[in-house]
Design goal:
- The chain folds into two domains: 241 residues, Serine Threonine Protein Phosphatase 5, Tetratricopeptide repeat, CATH 1.25.40.290; 106 residues, Immunoglobulins (Immunoglobulin-like), CATH 2.60.40.10.
- The strands form two sheets. It has a five-stranded mixed sheet with strand order 2-8-7-4-5, with no helix packed on it. The protein has a three-stranded antiparallel sheet with strand order 1-3-6, with no helix packed on it.
- It is 44% helix and 21% strand.
- Helix 2 packs across helix 5, helix 9 runs antiparallel to helix 10 and helix 13 packs across helix 15.
- The chain is of the alpha+beta class.
- The chain has 17 helices and eight strands.
- The longest helix is centred in the middle third of the chain and has 17 residues.
- Strand 4 and strand 5 form a beta hairpin.
Length: 360
């Protein structure tokens, strides 16, 4: 089993280093009191984000009561840290700086260069979307790719692990000028965020998102990558317009036969192998997107389907024998349950063959 995130970040060593760094900037800092507050009786039982929030509260208790003074200390300390551990700095702003826009927003711009301020900026977006988006618009034009990425990532309607932005789910119009600015960004880091933002929008406004993708398609190679990544949820869902955008035009001239499984029952932890034959009956090569869908059984006994990509591209006329394997080993992201399962082969968005098996 992989090591849990809560055991990887906010370690004892990090807490010690953080206390030392603050003491160097602020000699009055009581590092011993800070450490005692952090390592309370339930520290080890807290999950990752709960640990971060507890650490933020401990900083509040041991830094100066004056927010501007405390923030100045953290701004000086933050460059000594990076990665997920550094999210404690913007978290301090999220907790205590919501009424200090002129101090807090520039601080988030600093902190995002060590970790990310994508979570901490969202309460500001909830409180005053128009005002917050003026900052994000400025960041979108920054020379620093961390700031440009924050401009997109911070306003994602469905950012994982983050508080929701209901107004942006309902109407993403404030987001679109940011994405327009970043649609051909030179940084992969930024372009991936733009794609993820568009993918979020597609969950609530698929036609609007596809209008944008249709308009952008073919502008640059980088923009085309954004569009393809942004459409991933619609493609997996078999959305006809999204499929057509990339040349996957139905199943005419295609047939699928001989889906076979190497076993009809397997134990959790084993691997299922399957083989099928795709026939291109048309005279010309065909653009094909191949996927398989596994209908997993949940603890409740209900099915939970998930789509996995096999390959996509040009298939020449004739028969194509294709084999794949799928592991049923438990992971942190998926726990398997015994019961009847089903697997199907998806061709250009449509299921064309299926077989059943049992997990025991």
């Amino acid at each position: 089993m992989p090591e849990r995130l809560k055991d990887i970040f906010f370690t004892n060593a990090f807490i010690e280093q953080l206390g030392q760094a603050i003491s160097q900037v602020y000699p009055k800092f009581d590092q011993k009191a800070f450490t005692c507050l952090v390592f309370d009786d339930v520290w080890t039982t807290r999950e990752l984000k709960a640990k971060m929030r507890h650490l933020t509260h401990c900083l509040r208790a041991t830094l100066p009561d004056d927010y501007p003074q405390a923030l100045e200390i953290l701004v000086k300390v933050a460059p000594s840290f990076n990665g997920f551990d550094a999210l404690v700095f913007p978290d301090y702003v999220e907790c205590y700086g919501l009424d200090e826009w002129d101090l807090s927003m520039p601080a988030l711009a600093v902190f995002t260069q060590q970790g990310s301020s994508e979570f901490a900026v969202r309460p500001f977006l909830l409180k005053d979307p128009q005002r917050a988006m003026t900052y994000l618009s400025t960041w979108a034009g920054s020379e620093n790719h961390h700031l440009r990425r924050l401009a997109s990532e911070g306003c994602r309607p469905r950012l994982p692990w983050a508080m929701a932005l209901p107004a942006f789910k309902k109407d993403p119009s404030l987001i679109l000028p940011i994405l327009e600015k970043l649609k051909a960004d030179e940084s992969d880091y930024v372009r991936k965020s733009v794609a993820n933002n568009l993918n979020d929008i597609s969950k609530d406004h698929p036609e609007l998102m596809l209008d944008i993708c249709t308009r952008w398609y073919g502008v640059t190679r980088q923009t085309d990558w954004i569009i393809k990544h942004a459409c991933r949820s619609l493609l997996k869902a078999g959305h006809e317009r999204a499929l057509r955008l990339f040349g996957f035009a139905g199943q005419t001239g295609l047939s699928l036969a001989s889906l076979t499984l190497d076993k009809t029952a397997l134990s959790i932890g084993e691997t299922l192998s399957f083989t099928f034959e795709l026939s291109v009956e048309a005279a010309a090569p065909q653009q094909v997107r191949l996927e398989y869908k596994v209908y997993f059984v949940k603890a409740s006994g209900k099915f939970s389907p998930k789509v996995f990509q096999i390959r996509e591209g040009i298939f020449e006329p004739g028969s194509h024998l294709i084999s794949r394997k799928h592991s049923f080993e438990d992971r942190t992201t998926r726990q398997h349950h015994p019961g009847p399962h089903r697997i199907s082969i998806v061709v250009n968005g449509a299921e064309m063959a299926a077989a059943s098996f049992d997990v025991v």
